[in-house]
Amino acid sequence: MPPSKPGASLDALRHAAAEAEQASSLRAVAREIGMSPTGLRNFLDGQTPYPSTRRKLNLWYARYRLSRRVYEEDEVSAGLALLLEAIPEAGYARAAERVLACVAEVHADTHVEAPAWLARLREAVARREGGGGDGAGPAG
Questions:
Q1: Among 57, 66, 80, 136, which one has the highest count of C-beta atoms within 10 angstroms of its own C-beta?
Q2: More confident residue, 15 or 136
Q3: Which residues contact 12 (CB under 8 A, 6 or more apart)?
């Protein structure tokens, strides 16, 4: 099986959903994500989501974390997965590297230090391209 497309890790998705549930309610968070309360409870209890649910979780996660101005590797990986979701699996790693290279180039051209997540994400994409997927992508 080829490596999965990246996105936020399941641990990061679970942590954010649990955090949101504590601040609100299971039903409210499930509604925000677009899944059933039972499905969310199963996910929080450790069940691996289907790819369509994983996509919903990544969409929600990007909105949730970015609304809190949190920009780390998992958030950017979730956003990258959404930007490139139409790219076939076979060309995904190359496309992701091109986007990340562009981000690195913009930082260099403007003499602004690149964020720490950029190098880590480029390394993760390179591992996937080489067939050594790290399991951080959608389950499926």
A1: 57
A2: 15
A3: 61, 74
